[in-house]
Amino acid sequence: MCAPENSSAIRLPRAMNPTSNCLRAPASTPIPMPIQMLPFRPIPFMRRAKSWAALALCLGVASIACAQNGLAADDPDWKETEVPPPPAFDQKRLVQIEMPVFMSLQIGIDPGTITIGKDGIVRYVVVATSKSGGALNAFYDGMRCATNESKTYARYSNDAWLIIQNPEWQKVSDVRSNYTRAIAKQGVCRGNAPRESIADIVDHIKRPVRNLE
């Protein structure tokens, strides 16, 4: 390397320094720093196996719960529990079901008669009265949301209940009564399961959600 002109470095005579031209030091090449790589840590087989086992257990518990609540439509062991007798109802407590305007009847449910059974069936008394007053009819019905079916256990007329012998389940879509379909959509069922509580059912009957066609 060459010393600067104004430096105090000792200079050799030209004879002793045959190379008069200064040699420049080659430019330094930066040394690349190695990139630190995180070690690959595969998930141990046992940990994955435990995760899948836990997921399967959760699904199994959920399936058992659904079966116990009558939510499993294909449960071969499902049986309807013993049906309680028709409960007393009060017209003053009726919550009106939203029905088409062309119907001449007013339909309502007495919240005090609604029950959610361990078999997953929602039972209730629905009352039909004429808009012009007078006639009154009531029905003690059950709704199984898991299969979208309904059943009428008893009919009320002339101040007395008439128990129906061996009533059968019918698809809600096949039932002639419009109120059964309205009740299923407006409050009793949430998909293929009954709602969580009686209060939840009553709240949805009071404020039905209209399904968009």
Characterization of the model:
- This protein has 213 residues and is of the alpha+beta class.
- It has a domain of 116 residues: Beta Barrel (Lipocalin), CATH 2.40.128.
- It has three helices and ten strands, in the order αββββββββαββα.
- Strands 1, 2, 3, 4, 5, 6, 7 and 8 form an eight-stranded antiparallel β-sheet that branches. The protein has a two-stranded antiparallel ribbon with strand order 9-10.
- Helix 2 crosses helix 3.
- It is globular.
- About 14% of the residues have low confidence.
What's the short story on this structure?
The protein is an alpha+beta fold and 213 residues long. It has helices at residues 45-68, 178-188, 198-206; strands at residues 95-96, 105-109, 115-116, 121-130, 136-144, 149-157, 160-163, 170-171, 189-190, 193-194.
Low-confidence stretches: 12-20, 51-70
> What do we call the CATH topology of the domain at 91-206?
Lipocalin
Average residue-wise pLDDT: 76
> Helix and strand succession?
HEEEEEEEEHEEH
Give the topology, please:
Elements: H1 45-68, E1 95-96, E2 105-109, E3 115-116, E4 121-130, E5 136-144, E6 149-157, E7 160-163, E8 170-171, H2 178-188, E9 189-190, E10 193-194, H3 198-206
Antiparallel strand pairs: 1-2, 2-4, 3-4, 4-5, 5-6, 6-7, 6-8, 9-10
